[in-house]
Specification:
heterodimer; A: about 160 residues; mainly alpha; about 0% strand; B: alpha/beta; 7 strands
């Protein structure tokens, strides 16, 4: 099997309705899980956001709770298949925001224990290489958007 | 015709995004109101983020001069939560170092030696330092009841001409 065939099979799987559904559930599930585990202890997550030194203190608390609810709400919409394109745009934006915030903090030598999937401060500190998980989720969100976009365009035609 | 469809699709998309943002904001306010660790959504008076409403009510705030007087009168303990290096460079006379960044390693010894009914006065390095409140929060969780935060922190302590010990020198 050469590389072209592998590529073709891979694209076929990606375009398949069922694989898209599974993909949607995985991406939505990741955001629901990430939002839920942090919403258990919003105070700790607010302190982690404060450590990034990006937002003025006055906005940190409201931004924390709002961000977590947005993650969960959009995740639920994606899993349920409601407004998937709009949600995938929002999720892509969130991923870009997370990557930008971590990169900004790392560039300023701020030691972070980013609360992406937990609020524990005992985990390993963030490094440039640890950004792979956000990049992977970002690719997933872009794929979700692209698949829905292609389908909408083909329906319009 | 196709372009009109794309544009209307984009508008619909933007409206949906706005609805989602608004819905999540309403959800956030509702969830926060009923959350056991409810956060004050609007922070005023330079309050530190990430401290639940319930915890704020358990903490007291005073200035450095009053703290000095109270520590002497009530045999309270001054706690400096800055890093060990900063502490050894200079610190308030009689202060104990309980570094925020090493808290997990040093607190067992601290809780062993200090009873939880002692008055603790906590400060860090500057007025925008949030770690004193975070240490206070941890100490509240460990059972300490009488915790006071020194407003303006170590800078105010020095500015108020209160006694300071410096590395390699006697008390000033």
């Amino acid at each position: 099997m050469n590389i072209v065939t592998v590529n073709r099979v891979f694209l076929k799987i990606l375009k398949n309705n069922w694989s898209q559904r599974i993909f949607r559930i995985v991406i939505g599930g990741i955001f629901i899980f990430a939002g839920y585990v942090k919403l258990i202890a919003p105070d700790r997550f607010a302190q982690q956001i404060m450590a990034y030194e990006i937002l003025p203190w006055g906005f940190v608390n409201i931004f924390t709770v709002w961000l977590l609810c947005l993650e969960i709400l959009v995740g639920i919409f994606v899993v349920a298949g409601i407004w998937v394109r709009s949600c995938s745009v929002l999720l892509t934006g969130l991923c870009v925001l997370f990557i930008g915030a971590v990169a900004y903090a790392l560039a300023r030598d701020i030691s972070l224990h980013c609360g992406c999937f937990s609020t524990a401060s005992s985990g390993p500190a963030r490094t440039w290489t640890s950004l792979w998980q956000e990049v992977l989720i970002l690719l997933g969100c872009v794929n979700l958007w692209a698949a829905k976009y292609k389908r909408n365009v083909s329906h319009a035609n | 015709m196709h372009i009109c469809g794309v544009i209307s699709g984009q508008i619909k998309n933007c409206v949906r995004i706005a609805i989602l943002l608004l819905l999540s904001l309403i959800l956030a306010i509702v969830v926060n109101t009923f959350h056991p660790l409810r956060l004050p959504l609007l922070l005023t008076d330079g309050k530190r983020p990430g401290i639940p409403v319930g915890k704020w009510n358990e903490l007291r705030y005073i200035n450095a001069r009053d703290a000095f007087n109270e520590v002497s009168a009530q045999q309270g303990i001054l706690i400096d939560v800055r890093d060990t290096d900063d502490f050894s460079e200079s610190h308030a006379s009689g202060a104990v170092n309980l570094s925020y960044h090493e808290f997990d390693y040093v607190y067992p010894k601290f809780t062993e030696e200090v009873s939880d009914d002692r008055h603790l006065y906590i400060f860090c390095h500057g007025k925008l330092c949030g770690i004193s409140v975070r240490v206070a929060e941890r100490l509240l969780d460990l059972g300490f009841k009488n915790i006071t935060i020194i407003k303006q922190d170590f800078e105010d302590w020095k500015a108020s001409n209160l006694p300071v010990e410096k590395k390699g020198s006697e008390e000033m």
